[in-house]
TrEMBL record, chain A:
The keyword Signal applies. Residues 1-26 form the signal peptide. Keywords: Signal. The lineage of its organism: Bacteria, Pseudomonadati, Pseudomonadota, Gammaproteobacteria, Cellvibrionales. This is Orphan protein.
From TrEMBL, chain B:
It holds the Pfam family SBP_bac_1. The lineage of its organism: Bacteria, Pseudomonadati, Pseudomonadota, Gammaproteobacteria, Cellvibrionales. Residues 1-23 form the signal peptide. It comes from Gilvimarinus xylanilyticus. The keyword Iron applies. The keyword Transmembrane helix does not apply. Fe cation binds at Y237, Y238. Keywords: Iron, Metal-binding, Signal. This is Extracellular solute-binding protein. GO terms for molecular function: metal ion binding.
Amino acid sequence: MKVLLQSCHKALFVCSLLLAAAQVSANGDIGEHVNHLQDNLDKYTKEVNWINERIDAMVDTYEAKGAEAAESDKVVDIWESVLFHSAIEVNYVPIYASIWQGLYGVKEAIDAEKPVNEVRAEQAALEQSLWQALGAVKLAALYQQRGLLEQVKTTSGPTTPVATLDEVKQRLDRVVAKYAEKLPDEATGIVHDTYLNLFEGVEGALIEQDAALVESLEKDFNVTLPKAIAGNGSVEEVRGVVSDMQTKLNSAQELLEQAESERKDVF
Amino acid sequence: MQRRHFLQALAGAGLLGSLPLTAARALAQTPGALSVDDLPALVGELTLYLGRGEGGLYENVLEAIQKRNPDFKLNIRRGVTAALANTIVAEAQAGVRRADVFWAVDSGAIGLVDEAGLARKLPADLTGQLKEGFRYDNWSPVTGRIRTLPYNTDKLTADKIPASVMALPDSGLSIGWAPAYASFQSFITAMRLLEGEKATGEWLKAMNKRGKNYAGELGVVMAVERGEVDVGFANHYYTLRLKAGKPDARVGLAFTQNDAGCLVNASGILALSEGDLPVNFIRYLLTREVQSYLASEAYEIPLVDGVVPPQGLPALDTISPPKMDLTQLADLRPTLDLMRRVGVL
């Protein structure tokens, strides 16, 4: 059973990679290196080690000299200065969000002058996310080598309702990432944009299948998720709302897939 | 003009000759839309700029046309309708033409391209298939949508709703609306053109005190159904689709009379390049089969004669939409300025 669950998890993960690769970074210039992951794996590995060393040094300084000397603001500069940043962003946004969560976990623990063992716990969580992210990028590189990963590019958008909901789910991952980056306005902007430009285009077809499901997702998009973001709660709270929405969107995809298979032919 | 007289006029002008014989015979013999079987095969390559439409159903139509015509290749560039219209105009200004055909979800975008002098004149036998009031020289409406007032049937009956949209703010009813929504803004543009800027500004101000905001028009219809508001503004298909998924939904449709409140807007298509291929491609969209498909699957209103409208909607000739050139709806900027000025946006 455990093996089966692991296989399922791996399949979902690979699926996420394949879907996420077509996504354009919301952060503008991401660099051509993301289309040549295999060639850059050594560089990414070195970068992950470098980040871990820098954060470790920061925590050491905190332990020895206190919060001010640790210069916790630098966690963001450290992360944004590496190429690996965009490699994971375009390939697996959920872990990208966890990295931001980890970075702020360390920063906020230092700023709050928490006991060093609590800061170390946050540091360990960050390291775990970074290694997990490197694993995801290595897997993505493998699929890219086999030609199974699309070039990262601007797409003209999904053409079916099911593909549209895939993109909606990816954008919701990005909402969590932006919230974890402490960019709540940007996160809210993505929610509104996703609703108006993507979800709204398929909810007419969905309401024919399950009116209650649409009612529930309408509320999530327009009330629950914006409220969770504005409420300044933890990343976990926002991730929880998004996760519930993604579960509902999975049901929506099944319903739309079934409806499409039963649809009459044009001619 | 009666159809028989119209056909006689076409025959007299020798215009039926521009169609293949079978198509000309079918048009002469059958009332209403042609069948796809009457059309010539499409041969060659076209580039279509497609404004995003009804959740994949336009894609199904395009796929079916390509499948039926193995020697026809359709390149599709998809995007937001208004952005594609601007791209076409910009490309023309730069001296390039990448699109052969433009299918837009709203006629305002068509107006923008037509106004720039880029649309080719369509043959009269094609535009003549459309219902009266929807015949334009340089573009063809594909399907229509009507502005409606969905109302909560537990709280109201249709006769309690004013027949004039201008009277709604004084009706005492609570009203749901989605001012940021493109269809709503087209409706306000129509009001501005029909009633004038001052009256529209006053109406918006009065409505702003009474209206409850929603992000989209399906949201408006659902709020009406829940009883959050008595009545709302929305395109007709949202209510029909809700009732398809929830047959006992407490929502009915009311129509105002001869004003912007019951405007019939349309998706439209135009040819940007010369030749028979773009025109014949457009003919496929006006066939009985495609019009019926979009009516039954997307709840859109067929605009050629002889095709049954979607279930749950009164026949188009029982509604009294205002007479207006739909391409004028391209004049959106003054509408947005007005909405901002009165604090609605």
